[in-house]
Design a protein that fits this description.
The chain is built from 17 helices and eight strands. By secondary structure, it is of the alpha/beta class. It has an eight-stranded mixed beta sheet with strand order 1-2-4-3-5-6-7-8, with helices on both faces. Helix 7 crosses helix 8 and helix 7 crosses helix 11. The longest helix is centred in the C-terminal third of the chain and has 23 residues. The protein has one domain: Rossmann fold (3-Layer(aba) Sandwich), CATH 3.40.50.
Length: 352
């Protein structure tokens, strides 16, 4: 990691003059939206997106299928493209909705807007209200799972069931491997150079590679989709800078610690579905969440995945989600009681 990171820094320096000439002179209209409707993050995927007004934002989202609503909340620095493998597997039986969270993807925000987690919660609630949805199932990962934790605390009545995957939680984020890249994005001198370097696939692969166990998990096309969402225009890059400044703010990141008391009151059926090889947000966080949330019916690990099991083991991930959503309430309650009893027995055995 250290050698590769040094190589990236060298690439940044060598690319500096070209970077400034390409990107450095562009001005940003801070009164306008950070992206325009005809400027999608990835054309082939984004052309299926719809837009809905959730004041003061214009939310981009995928809307497919019919049936009970399922809302998918993506992670950072990703967008709803993250769910491209799960959506086709759910849309036959469910009304699948995948919004782009604030400051990410194609949702239109202003560069003066606040992209922090409490406003993601407000956006999600406004999104449900605008669509006339009173209650939904939620599947969430990473930053989206942090958003879900606040929803579980503040709006439990809007959640029928919840799936939590490799979540930003407690005081465990951002993870240490992420921090050098976040700092490159927000640094006044390094930022334009880093944006330039992200045009290269090998740099993209190194940056996003910290999220996966299988290094060939990302195709070039997937890396392009995730990267272009941030580097396509100066406005998009400025938006990411603003987002990452908050990611690096310890005061902002306390919101997930503040949510813990609410999690301890959440009794709706909850599945912890986790990539076991995640060295940044590891199984210890999954087990801690399982202990704090009384509604948890079980913890399932995907053995060959790190932070993005929906990317590395999409079929196994989709099967686990679909099975949980389809299980009847009485069976889930039996699973919940058995799971709590098993944990209590293990805890008692450990103290003897």
């Amino acid at each position: 990691m250290r050698k590769t990171y040094t190589a990236i820094v060298i690439a940044l320096v060598l690319g500096g003059i070209l970077a400034v000439s390409l990107y450095g002179g562009s001005s940003v209209d801070r009164a306008g939206f950070a992206l325009e409707p005809n400027e999608p993050a990835l054309e082939e995927f984004s052309r299926h997106k719809r837009y809905i007004e959730v004041s003061p934002w214009r939310v981009a989202y995928i809307d497919e299928g019919q049936g009970p609503p399922v809302v998918l909340l993506h992670g950072c620095p990703f967008h709803s493209f993250q769910w491209r493998d799960l959506i086709p597997r759910l849309r036959e039986k469910y009304h699948v909705l995948a919004p782009d969270l604030l400051g990410l993807g194609d949702t239109q925000v202003r560069l003066t807007d606040d992209y922090r987690l409490p406003n993601d919660v407000a956006m999600v609630i406004g999104f449900l209200d605008a669509l006339g949805i009173r209650e939904a199932d939620f599947v969430a990962a990473d930053h989206g799972a942090a958003t879900l934790q606040l929803l579980m605390r503040d709006h439990p009545e809007r959640i029928r069931r919840a799936v939590i995957t490799n979540a930003e939680a407690y005081d465990q984020w951002p993870s240490k491997p992420e921090i050098p890249y976040l700092k490159q994005v927000v640094s006044p001198w390094a930022s334009p150079l880093f944006r330039f370097a992200l045009r290269f696939t090998w740099v993209q692969r190194e940056v996003f590679g910290v999220a996966v166990h299988q290094k060939d998990a990302f195709t070039d096309e997937v890396l392009y989709a995730y990267t272009r969402a941030h580097i396509a225009t100066p406005e998009r890059w400025a938006r990411l800078q603003r987002f990452f400044r908050w990611q690096l703010d310890p005061e902002h990141n306390r919101v997930t610690m503040d949510a813990v008391e609410g999690l301890r009151r959440f009794e709706k059926p909850t599945l912890i579905l986790w990539g076991k090889q995640d060295t940044n947000f590891g199984p210890a966080i999954a087990e801690r969440l399982a202990g704090d949330i009384p509604g948890v019916v079980g913890v399932e690990y995907l053995d060959h995945s790190a932070h993005m099991p929906f990317q590395e083991e999409p079929e196994q991930y989709a099967r686990a989600v679909a099975r949980f959503l389809a299980t009847d309430s009485s069976t889930l309650e039996q699973q919940r009681r058995a799971f709590r009893a098993e944990r209590a027995a293990k805890k008692e055995g450990a103290t003897q």
